[in-house]
Write a structure and sequence with these properties.
Layout: E1 3-9, H1 17-33, E2 36-43, H2 45-49, H3 56-73, E3 81-84, H4 89-98, H5 104-108, H6 111-119, H7 128-131, H8 133-143, E4 148-150, H9 156-173, E5 181-183, H10 216-224, H11 245-253, H12 258-262, H13 269-278, H14 283-309, H15 312-341, H16 349-359
Parallel strand pairs: 1-2, 2-3, 4-5
Bound molecules: adenosine-5'-triphosphate and magnesium ion.
């Protein structure tokens, strides 16, 4: 069987450049590589509700925002099936059966969920749905028999959990499910891009994002306010690279020809960093360079977004037909799962024959 991709995002806000370098950019490369038999991209609205139960309107409003972000980065509806999670009830049913294979203590060990619980100050009152979302993610991935999940580093524990569920299921009921693996960005910085405030992760929930749909002015203002090095007061002072988000973003976005185009007095990023560390290089200069590098990447994304914003009914059709096609695939997997678990009484002539034999002895 060929390779299959399933990945997705929570519609809790517009997508940001952390999503872009962590997953979206790679999805587009993989889409164009021709290596994949099928690519499913899911808007995880049911998962978004696990920590937004009191705010369904936020989730509802962000579905179209995320769909527009997808199309604007160059995901191609001819090559990709887009789907909305909540509209595929088979995913919920799979989650229910998989939860029998997972212990509470195993869920408690998931480091990503642990830190997300802390961040949301959920400690004393975690919604069960939020606590168990790794199981629902395993259902999403396995429903499409996905082999490959392009995602950021925070998703590693989810993939580990999904693989455990697959192994447990296949051992217990027979070989039905496919073990998925994560496809992380090769560039380490891109696996977890920090926020503009220097916090460990750019995240919608932390409000420290540069959004793909920000205007040039918004991006420029955010770069101007960006945290650099508090000890680098005068241009002549030696500066630090470690923890300096301007350099972190340059690590994630600089391309081979960026220097030639926008800062020809340097050969490469190592040279720029060395000069900054030595002293004599001002923050304004590196920030202007970052703005130019970001703008080169974001301008075409913004332009494609405008194209699709003028075609919302078409986007609606893409989502609807994608979800319908995806549901058929998930339904076939659910049938395989129920057959393997032998909870298929009305489709299994053996069951009624057995029962009849048992009671007419
Ligand atoms: P929320 O705060 O609602 O959880 P989020 O910004 O963390 O939102 P998700 O929808 O949870 O975004 O993540 C979607 C995908 O983007 C995942 O594959 C995740 O690994 C990746 N991702 C999110 N933030 C970053 C980041 N800062 N750096 C790299 N990848 C990221
Ligand atoms: Mg997240």
């Amino acid at each position: 069987m060929g390779k299959i991709i399933l990945t997705g995002d929570r519609p809790t806000g517009r997508l940001h450049i952390g999503h872009y370098v962590g997953s979206l950019r790679r999805r587009v490369e993989l889409q164009n590589s021709g290596e994949f038999e099928k690519i499913y991209i899911m808007i995880a609205d049911a998962q978004a509700l696990t920590d937004n139960a009191d705010n369904p309107e936020k989730v509802r409003q962000n579905i179209m925002e995320v769909a527009l972000d997808y199309l604007s980065v160059g995901l191609d509806p001819e090559k990709v099936t887009f789907l909305i999670q909540s509209q595929i009830p088979e995913l919920t049913e799979l989650t229910f059966y998989y939860s029998d294979l997972v212990t509470v203590s195993r869920l408690q060990r998931n480091p990503t969920v642990k830190s997300e619980i802390q961040m949301r100050e959920f400690e004393a009152s975690i919604p069960v749905g939020f606590f168990t979302y790794p199981i629902s993610q395993a259902a999403d991935i396995t429903a499409f028999k996905a082999t490959t999940v392009p995602a950021g580093e925070d998703q590693e524990p989810m993939l580990e959990q999904a693989r455990e569920i697959v192994r447990k299921f296949n051992q217990t009921y027979g070989e039905v499910l496919v073990e998925p693996s994560i496809s992380l960005p090769t560039n380490e910085t891109c696996r977890r891009l920090p926020g503009i405030d220097g916090k460990a992760k750019m995240s919608k929930s932390l409000g420290n994002c540069i959004y793909l749909s920000d205007t040039e002015k918004e991006v420029s203002d955010k770069v101007r306010q960006m945290y650099t090095d508090p000890t680098h007061l005068k241009v002549s002072d030696p500066g630090h690279i470690e923890g300096n988000v301007v350099f972190t973003y340059l690590d994630a976005f600089v391309k081979e020809d960026s220097f030639e185009k926008y800062l020809p007095e340097y050969q490469n990023l190592d040279e720029l960093k060395a000069h900054y560390e030595k002293g004599g290089l001002g923050d304004v200069k590196i920030k202007n360079f970052l703005k130019a590098v970001l703008e080169e990447e974001l301008a075409p994304i913004r332009e494609r977004r405008h194209y699709w914003e003028a075609r919302i009914p078409e986007v609606y059709e893409i989502l609807k037909s994608g979800t319908e096609a995806a549901e058929k695939v998930a339904a076939a997997t659910l049938t395989d799962v129920k057959n393997a678990m032998k909870i298929n009484y009305f489709e299994d002539p053996e069951w009624i024959a057995e029962q009849e034999a048992k009671f007419t002895k």
